[in-house]
Amino acid sequence: MVRVRFAPSPTGFLHIGSARSALFNWLFARHEKGRFLLRIEDTDKVRSKSEFLDEILASLKWLGMDWDEEPVYQSKREELYKKAAEKLIKEGKAYKEGDAIRFRMPEKKIKVNDITRGEIKFDSEVLKDEVLIKSDGSPTYNFACVIDDADMKITHVIRGDDHISNTPKQIAIYEALGYAIPEFAHIPLILGPDGSRMSKRHGATSIMEYKKEGYLPDALVNFLALMGWSPGDDREILSKEELIKEFTLERINKTSAAFGIDKLNWLNGQYIKEKDPKALLELLLPVLRDKKIIGKDFDREKLLDLIELYKVRMKTLADFAEHVSVFYSDKIDFDEKGVKKHLKKKGAKKLLATWAKRLSGLSSFKKDILEENCRKLADELNVKPSGLIHPTRVAITGRTVGAGLFETMEVMGKDMVLTRLDYTIKNLAL
RNA sequence: GGCGCUAUCGUCUAGUCUGGCCUAGGACGUCAGCUUCUCAAGCUGAAGACACGGGUUCAAAUCCCGUUAGCGCUACCA
Q1: Inside any domain, residue A137
Q2: Is A398 inside any structural domain?
Q3: What distance in Å separates the CA atoms of residue A296 and residue A294, rounded to the nearest whole number?
Q4: Which residue of A5, A117, A152, A290 is most buried, as measured by CB atoms within 10 A?
């Protein structure tokens, strides 16, 4: 049975790159109906922090990557590594150096058979005697990795490209220990938008950061899967189920991919557009509360209407808050250019006053009725409908752009619309 | 420096293993048009790439060699 692992070290948050490594392991395990395991590489006692571990685990859960079996903690298995190292000393394959133990690197060429790259040869002349156990008794990465992968019966090691040079060292250790060597698949790194090494300079790199900014986990997973892998046909939007069905290691790219936010934004918009409004509402509530747009009590139906209006207009959940704040707060940010163009115009005041009067007499504030009345009034006043629509939009939302005016008015409600028109007539229109 | 990996539109990629179906396909982005009360969405269209130089071959994006560029590793970090 296929057994793979994701082995983060809790010395930082889960970022885009390591999340993609985890994803490829997870996808492969689920595709092969194998096991996806977690190993916490916390041998660096100084840099490892439990907050980081919590965040990494929360990130994996959020992305929907579930793991099988209890996570393995390297910090709890020092005895295992020590025993293995001592066995190697006894066999003359390692030696003491102070309190540390060093591996005696055999002098021979080492071949790595990589699934994504084929055969890679290394001259062991360049391979040094690696430290196995550090002076403080903890194992080094390359040693613990081998011991644990063997102990956890890992069949495929799927990890970042940056580990290619570690692989011959690890293979030498496998051989010295007499362990079966797993398959290796090295995946290309994800680069920053400019093609250079991914770094904090490039903005949000931790997964939780993307959650905060309003990206949907499925969109992020879809996007990540497409970095360095493709289904082989023209599909761009793939559900988790489809990804699992199509995922094979053979289709992983050799070339590193630059992280481009544009496509993520597009994908996220696609996922939002397809999302059930009620489900979207649940996702939006925390965002709106966080931004103090709604409190404990809120009108569920109104929110659902707003979602209907703005779901095609948002790329992230955070965008929604921007769009709808004007429906909840009387503090309107008037767009200067819009005011100048549509309100600071001779006749605007009279036009809006007539319109407001007509509206106040309406018994129904449904969008069809509103539109009918608007067009009729425009006709009577001998102006184009747009001549009435644009000033009204600026008057009630402060902006020149947004959802359809009549839908907007209906959701906003008669009182608020009239109050705002009144304010505009008195203070802004000429 | 040494060792290793990689090289297709601005970006993500298909095609490379198994040479001909590739005057290189799709997506994002950009631009234009349609639609329209604006924006968005949607639809239609356009521009846009085989890093360079040598081979091999009837035929090369595809195979080989070199150059260049980028990246990784070169720790008692992981």
Answers
A1: yes
A2: yes
A3: 7
A4: A5
Between the alpha carbon of residue A287 and those of residues A117, A314, A320, the distances in Å are 44, 14, 9
- Asked whether residue A319 is domain-assigned, the answer is no
- Nearest Cα neighbor of A114 from A145, A157, A153 is A157
Q: How far apart are CA A257 and CA A249, in angstroms?
A: 17
CA of A169 to C1' of B18 (A): 34
pLDDT in tens, A19-75: 999 999 999 999 999 999 999 999 888 889 999 999 999 999 999 999 999 999 999
Identify the residues numbered 131 to 150 in chain A whose C-beta atom is closer than 7 Å to any atom of strand B: 131, 134-136, 138, 140-142
Number of Cβ atoms within 10 Å of the Cβ of A64: 13
Q: What is the pLDDT of residues A290-320, one digit of tens each?
A: 999 999 899 999 999 999 999 999 999 999 9
ipTM of the complex: 0.95
- Write the DSSP symbol of residue A254: S
CATH code for the domain of A359: 1.10.10.350
Residue ending a domain, among A139, A172, A190, is: A190
CB atoms within 10 A of CB A178: 9
User: Are A177 and A150 within 8 A, CB to CB?
Assistant: yes
State how far the alpha carbon of A409 is from the alpha carbons of A310, A329, A372, A400, A404, in Å. 14, 15, 13, 14, 9
Give, in order, the Cα–Cα distances in Å from A163 to each of A3, A38, A114, A204: 19, 18, 12, 24
Q: Are A122 and A171 in contact (CB under 8 A)?
A: no
Number of domains observed in the structure of chain A? 2
